[in-house]
Amino acid sequence: MNVKSVFLDLDGTVLHDDKTISKRLADVVTELKKRINIYVSTGRSWESASSYVEKLGLEDLAINYNGARIINLKTKEVISEKPLNEETVKKLIAVSREHKIHLNLYKDDKWYVENAGREAEYYSNLTDIKWNLINFDDFMGKKSTKALFVAEYKRLEEIKEILQKKLSGVEYVFSSEYYMEILQEGVNKGSAVKKVLEESGVSKDEAMAFGDHWNDKEMLQYVKYGYLMGNAPENLKEVFDKEKIIAANNEDGVAQILEKLI
Fold first, then answer.
1. 208 neighbors 223 (Cβ within 8 angstroms)
2. What is the pLDDT of residue 175?
3. N- to C-terminal Cα distance for the chain?
4. Which of 155, 184, 213 is the last residue of a domain?
5. Is there a single domain that holds both residue 99 and residue 173?
6. DSSP label at 144?
C-alpha cells in the first residue's frame, strides 16, 4: 500500500472504551508520522480532542465537529468552518424547547446548553469538557458550528422527522446511539478529508482512514483504504466489504493495520 495520509477518528476507534490510547498505537503513530501525514478527524470540538491529539504527538491539522471545522495545530488558526446559519439555529432552539429535548450548540469552540441536566452531565463525562449554561435567547442571531441533540435513539428519530418538515439545507447524522448531529448541508468528514487531501497534494488513492460510526461513513468511503472498526453498529457493517472491517477498538484494530505500513 502506497499511503501518504491517514485520518483517525477518536471515540470507538483510536480510543479504547476507557478513553485511553494504547502504547501499541502511540508507538506506531510515532514511527509513521516521520514520513506519513497523520490527522485526527473527529466529531469532538478542539477543546475536547486536544489532549488526545497531543498524546499522539500530531502537529499539522485537525478535523473537528464532523468536518465542520478544520484547524492548524501549530497556530490554532481556523482554516475552514462551515456552521449552521442563524435561521437554522433559531428553529433548532424552538424545536428543543417545544419538545423538551436536550440541545447542544457550539460557537468559537465552546459548548452551550440551556439546561444542565443529566444529558449535559452524560455528554460532559464522555467528552471531558464542561458546558456553558445560557438562555438560548442569547444565542439568537448567531451561527453554531454544529448542533447536537441528546436522547434515546427512538426519541432522536422522532425529532429528526419533525426537523425534516421545518429545515432545509442541513445534514443529519447519528454519531452514537444517544447523539443526533445537525450539520450544514455538504458538511461531513468525507468532504473535510477531501479538502485536506487536495490542499496537501495527496490523492484519495494514497489515503487511509479509520472510523466506527455513521458519522465516519463518507470519510471511509472517500479514501481508498477506509476501515470500519469491529465494534461498529451491525447495520453500518452491512455497508462495507468484509475485508474493510477490522478488529475492535479495544483490540487495537487501528494499530494492527498501521503496523503493516512500517
1. yes
2. 93
3. 11
4. 184
5. yes
6. B
